[in-house]
Write a structure and sequence with these properties.
The complex is a heterodimer of chains A (236) and B (228). Chain A contains 4 helices and 10 strands; from the N terminus they run E-E-E-E-H-E-H-E-E-H-E-E-H-E. With 236 residues, chain A is α+β, with helices and mostly antiparallel strands. In chain A, a hairpin with a 2-residue loop joins strand 2 and strand 3. In chain A, helix 1 crosses helix 2. The longest helix of chain A is centred in the last third of the chain and has 27 residues. Chain A is globular. The mean pLDDT of chain A is 93. By secondary structure, chain B is of the alpha+beta class. Chain B folds into 3 domains: 53 residues, RNA polymerase II/Efflux pump adaptor protein, barrel-sandwich hybrid domain (OB fold (Dihydrolipoamide Acetyltransferase, E2P), Beta Barrel); 73 residues, OB fold (Dihydrolipoamide Acetyltransferase, E2P); 84 residues, 2-Layer Sandwich (Ribosomal Protein S8, Chain: A, domain 1), CATH 3.30.1370.10. In chain B, helix 3 packs antiparallel against helix 4 and helix 3 runs parallel beside helix 5. The longest helix of chain B has 16 residues. Chain B starts with 8 loop residues before the first strand and ends with a helix. The chains are: A alpha+beta (236), B alpha+beta (228). The interface between A and B is medium-sized, with 27 and 21 residues.
Chain lengths: 236, 228
């Protein structure tokens, strides 16, 4: 692929236009919206509240419980509502991405519920979900060491690109597409979560992580701005 | 509000509030090397080199000595289970009621669904213990309950009760503010109570404006002028 631009005209290290807004669910303790182009995720945080049933309480530290759900109209072919194998996996992965920063030890035998809804999907939904969830957790006043920013890096044939969309995710030319979702603690260079789907060499993977880190810095600025201006939609 | 508090700023978790060896980390902050780093979302405030974060959102965190308003959830053989809007159950034992109660007649003091002003007497691993052995505590029989954001309760009370006294004087209502965000307004007429409610809503909307007490005074003058 000897191109200088991507199918939708973006540069290789350019993410889709992003939007963020904090405070969108009035009944929740904290809530946020985050979008990458057509991918829109909203997150609502409830709690800390008492864990029910009692046998799943952990008296040593609290529990972070994430629930990722794609709404049936979020994609072109209607998806069956309710939990699926995929959504259960992404819920768990989101928990793991956020757990290192949330100071869960302060809430023994309690639970913090994070509900992530995907309103519209065009790839990178888990990254949008994690970004929204991190903002919602902060908005809910939960003690956190840091904020989490997430982005996906793809490999189209032999080129590394930031923030893949659906068209690029289904790339079939040459070596095909590789999709790597990753999350970082924003203020220190810690990698919280990484998932890889496809083929990649270790050298390229290192390059991809570096690219992802650069992209998340921009996302972090947007999240920061949205949290400081509650109720306003911030574009970037 | 005093002038030196005007340099307050919203901070987000992980953000460096100030940098320097001589600052002390207060509530909601941590020291990392030279920097004071925010550990939660809120307004950062620095007083005499002590940096702390005033929460803007989140659920009510119970503290010992807080006066709160709760609803009776259940009766047990030796007390009442009261919902005060916290994750933990709050329990009011019979021994913390200032008069003799027959064990079979707990419902005569408070029944399920009754609202009550209670004081947090102790917090332990098992839960929260409550007491009504003080003046002004006990079952609520009349008046109106308003729910506000618990993080705005300090604004409604004001410095040494300045704001709440202002509202009380101007509306002629008796007002009890629970730290958990429930406000009990009790006046002679519904109109007075509604006026007090309007005033409280005004305060919660205009919170974090400096010189709020003066603004509320003005607001009262305007509102009363309109009525005449």
């Amino acid at each position: 692929m000897a191109q200088i631009k991507r199918p939708d005209g973006r540069k290789f290290e350019e993410a889709r236009p992003m939007k963020a807004k904090v405070g969108i669910v009035p009944n929740a303790n904290g809530s946020a919206m985050f979008s990458f182009g057509d991918t829109i995720a909203i997150a609502a945080v409830y709690g800390p509240k008492k864990m029910h049933p009692q046998h799943s309480q952990n008296p040593e530290k609290g529990t972070l419980r994430c629930n990722y759900n794609m709404i049936s109209f979020s994609v072109n072919d209607r998806i069956r509502p309710g939990t699926s194998r995929r959504s259960t996996e992404i819920s768990k992965v989101t928990e793991w991405a956020l757990e290192p920063v949330v100071m869960i030890d302060n809430f023994p035998s309690m639970v913090i519920d994070v509900h992530i809804q995907i309103l519209q999907a065009n790839a990178s939904t888990r990254c949008a979900g994690i970004n929204a969830a991190a903002m919602a957790l902060a908005h809910a006043g939960i003690p956190m060491r840091d904020l989490v920013s997430s982005v996906s890096v793809g490999k189209l044939d032999k080129t590394l690109v930031v923030d893949v969309n659906k068209y690029e995710e289904d790339w079939e030319d040459g070596e095909g597409a590789t999709d790597i979702a990753m999350s970082f603690s924003s203020n220190n260079d810690e990698l919280n979560h990484i998932q890889l789907d496809g083929h990649i060499t270790s050298k390229e993977l290192k390059e991809a992580v570096k690219m992802g880190r650069e992209a998340t810095k921009k996302i972090y600025e947007l999240q920061k701005k949205a949290l400081k201006n509650v109720g306003e939609e911030i574009e970037g | 509000m005093a002038k030196e508090e005007s340099n307050r700023e919203i901070v987000i978790p992980g953000e460096i509030v100030v940098s320097g060896e001589d600052y002390l980390p207060g509530e909601g902050t941590e020291k990392k090397g030279k920097d004071i780093v925010a550990m939660r979302y809120g307004l950062a405030e620095e007083v005499n080199k002590l940096v702390k974060i005033i929460p803007l959102s989140g659920v009510y965190q119970p503290r010992r000595g807080n006066v709160v308003i709760g609803r009776v959830e259940n009766l047990t053989f030796n007390g009442w289970v009261i919902d005060i809007g916290t994750a933990e159950n709050a329990f009011l034992p019979l021994t913390e009621v200032p008069r003799y109660v027959n064990k079979n007649e707990l419902d005569e003091v408070m029944d399920i669904g009754d609202l009550s002003v209670v004081k947090i007497w102790n917090i332990n691993k098992r839960g929260i213990d409550l007491s009504i052995k003080s003046r002004g505590l006990g079952r609520i029989d009349e008046g109106m309950i308003i729910k506000v954001n618990p993080n705005k309760v300090p604004r409604i009370i004001g410095k040494e009760g300045s704001m709440i006294n202002l509202i009380k004087d101007n509306t002629g209502c008796n007002i009890t503010v629970g730290q958990n965000g429930y406000v009990w307004v009790n006046g002679d007429s519904v109109e007075k109570e509604l006026f007090a409610k309007k005033a409280i809503t005004f305060v919660t909307e205009k919170s974090f404006v400096s010189g709020l007490t003066e603004k509320v005074e003005e607001w009262f003058k305007k509102e009363k002028g309109d009525k005449k």
